[in-house]
Every structure is written in structure tokens, then in C-alpha cells.
Amino acid sequence: MRVLIVEDEAKLAAYLRRGLVREGYAVDLAGDGEQGLWMATNNPYDAVVLDIMLPKLNGYRVCAELRTRGVWTPILMLTAKSGELDEAEALDTGADDFLAKPFSFVVLLARLRALTRRSAAERPAILEAGELRLDPAAHRCFVGDEEVALTPTELCVLATLMRRAGDVVSKREILESCWDWAFEGDPNIVEVYIRHLRTKVDLPFEATRLQTVRGAGYRVDAGDGG
Ligand code: CA
Question: On the chain, which terminus has fewer CB atoms closer than 10 Å, C or N?
């Protein structure tokens, strides 16, 4: 899960990032509305946490502009005070949910989980490919009846492949889905994670579900015989 936080209060932004990273999210920060709009337009986030009072472009305008551009990433808007007007306006401009400041981190986390689960049209709650079954929200993976323990990043890589089971997904796409903006290391890190995953979901079951497509990327066997 990759999340963008658009928040100009540096302390709050850093606090949220720390907490979300601990929960296994990849997190990018934007300090003003223009930067937030640019990043949310150009990266595949699972959710955006958007403050209203922002330099350059306020949160309502960022939200409205994203929707105008056809970007439907779930948006959780942070309202400054608990006012019905704020909240109504947040929803009117295309936000999916709002949270009044001050809020507790636990509540933010629960709302984010609900939001990323709700974007269910293209993201079914449970992903399946043959014997592989993955519940991204609950962080659980099964091969047949056997549960396999995965780290948050392994889980994200596998979920990215399983959302498009049977198709080739490029290393770049996996990188963009599971690593944050601050990652400037070797893209071959993806290969390392694919190897880890194979030792967990393939080797013990004498299977070859995770396939390397030379020069193109990776594919998880859809398991439908096709
Ligand atoms: Ca602010």
C-alpha cells in the first residue's frame, strides 16, 4: 500500500509518516497543494491523506482538480475543525471521507483501511490466483489451506502481481506500487523480493507460480488453466 500525505505542518506530516511506515505502508509527503496535486496525478497511490489549509492550492481545490483529471484515488480529507460545513464541502469536492483535527492515529489508520478496501471495484478484498489467496487488508496470505507469513513489502509485491494475475507486470510498476519516493536504490531490489516470495509460496509447494518474463517483468500464474 502506497499513501501520499499532503500536509504543510511538517511535524504532523512526519508523525503520520512514521506511524504509517511502521504499519507497512510506503509513504510520500507533499508540503503544499501544487506538489500534492502533481504527485497524486503522476503516481499510483492507494490513498491520499489531504489537509485543507495548504499553501499554494487548498485541499478542496486539489481534490476537485484530481477528480476533474479522472484520478479516483480514495481521498481522506483532514478538516481543521469539527464543522458540518467543512465536512459537507469535503465530500462535495469529491473526497471519500474526512477526519476532523485533532484526531488519533488509530482512527486515521482505521479510516485508511476502510477507504482502501472500499475502492473495491478494481480491488477485490480477497485476491486469488489458483491456490494463492491474499487478503491485503488483513495482511494474510494462503497457499491452499496453509498460511504463509509475508513481510509488508513482500505482501505488496505479491498483491501487485495478483491484481493482474496472468499479465506481465514490469519491475518499474512494482517499484512504483511498493516503494516510496525516497527510494533511490537499485530497481533490482524487486528481483530480490521475487526470490524471497518464491522461497515462501513456490518452493515449499513445488510450484512455479511466480514467473520471470525476461526483459519484461513478472507474472503470477492466474491458475485458471489459461
Ligand atoms: Ca495545514
Answer: C
